[in-house]
Amino acid sequence: xKTTIRVFCTLCMLVLCVSLSAQEKKVPxxxxxxxxxxxxxxxxxxxxxxxCVVDEKDNVVKATFDMGWGEASSSAFRPNDxxxxxxxxxxxxxxLGLCFFMKADKLVCEMDAGGYxxxxxxxxx
Length: 125
What we know:
Layout: H1 2-22, E1 33-40, E2 47-57, E3 60-66, E4 71-73, E5 78-79, E6 85-91, E7 94-103, E8 106-113, E9 116-124
Antiparallel strand pairs: 1-2, 1-9, 2-3, 3-4, 5-6, 6-7, 7-8, 8-9
């Protein structure tokens, strides 16, 4: 009887572990909303100010940036085991890799421009 109970408990734990690991990692609620951001223009050196809105539509989370010349959206957020969320962003026929995560009360977006990392810390509007 003890062996049967141990086998049953082991199977239950295995099923629980598999089901927990298979759950989709959700974007934390504190990432959603409108964020103020500023970044140096790599061509002119001027500081560009704008906003980033992280929202969900049709079960897809995206970031939409508005830096004064119009809005542009990222691809859908993809979770990773490190607690960060990844997306892509196309700028003038060049794809930037984006990595979003929370750091204290700021939303951080690390932009990967072909190996050159540009960190962008944003504050809630």
